[in-house]
Write a structure and sequence with these properties.
Rossmann fold, 14 strands, 18% strand, alpha/beta, hydrolase activity, oxidoreductase, oxidoreductase activity, acting on NAD(P)H, oxygen as acceptor
Length: 468
Amino acid sequence: MTAQSIIVTGAGSGIGLSIVNLLLQTSNVALVVAVDIRTQQLNVLVTQSGSRLRIVQGDVSTRTTSEEAVQAAIGQTGRLDAIILNAGILGPISPVIDGDIDKWKDLFNINFFSLLHGIQTAFPYLSKNSGRIILTSSGVSLRPTKSWGAYSCAKAAMNQLCSILAFEEPSISVVAVTPGVVDTSIQKTVRETHKETLDPGTYDWLVDLHKQGKMLQPERPAASFVKLATEGIPEEIRGKTGQVVKFNDVSVYDSQPPVGIELQHATVLLLPDGSGYRTLIPDYFEGDGLPVLLLHRNPKLSIDENDWPEEDKEKLKILNIPEWIKRHPESRIEELLASMIESLRGQNLSGPFLGVGYCFGGKYVYKLAKSTLKAAVAFHPSFVTEADFEGVKVPTYAGLAEKDQMVPETLPQDLKNWSLRNSVNLQIETYPGMKHGFAARPEAKDPVEREQYNSAFSRTVDFFKAHQ
């Protein structure tokens, strides 16, 4: 693989500094150009990294800083493969009515317009190498947060910039990453100086997260940024944006189609374990989902022998699957889904509901097919019984994994028998060589699994278009 050249802004501390550290530990990275107005910690790294690290000290809100960073990369390696635009400030913190417009402009110059400087300056070189642009967004861009108006608005503008850029420039890939609540200097500033400006619930929550040691360390999100920058941005997340909203007190991730995609006049209910569709993902586990590592665990290794972060190992050690299932009985999940549907029916939605369920969600997408959906798709469905098919009158699809060890071996024949006895229009397809979870969380480095994952996605979209 060709050695890569990558620019990181906001590189002097927090997530940005962790990104630089991890990039310097990545064998196929020839050069990291680190940009920040404060460079004390970066200067220490130079003595360890030599010519692989170039520091550009400057204000990202001025175009000359972006130009200097790009020229540093091109001058040394002759190429530019990715830019990670991470620079940002928090203030001003105040209600919108009391906001100082000049301070809002200062924040937008750093948090938003600096992105345009970086993107426009780097684009001619990125476009030659199918380059990547990774933007640091924030959860407050997706929901209103008291007194964070300037910061929230700038990050929301970033999200839309991401979506539009992905549509306009197919020669590059771009994504905006929301890293979560990370233990950085920004969070320290919030705890120490903004108790009076934040609403009490948000402030107390942030303080408690820090006291309990539950904030993410910068290295965790930094690893995701590095993976996207060095290995590429998966096609299905390029330019995407979404938000967490409430429908009758049910938390739902609401993903709107990217700019420029032909809109489909239907709403997809994605039941977890869009190609032009508005997609809703309800949290019917109420914040108590299973760790995704369960799907990728090597059964021949103990938890400690797996190459996972220590905190993830501890979570798996105390996990009790039977107890977890008891915490999420059918009656409660059906109640949450019914409440969400009731709220949605009161809105002016375009077209019918379509449903796709994965693993645990497969059972419930068939249940919804009895009264709510116009078409239903399930992949590697778990805990399915014949009762789930009684009363289903709409077209359904079942995508099965040939090597699924988490469902009964009789499931393919059971599905055929149940659908025949209940006169259900069911299409069954088995994906050769696949394991449980392939259609939702494939192994990114396995080209065969990636191909089958893409095939499953295409089958879903085609099925919906045929039956909506």
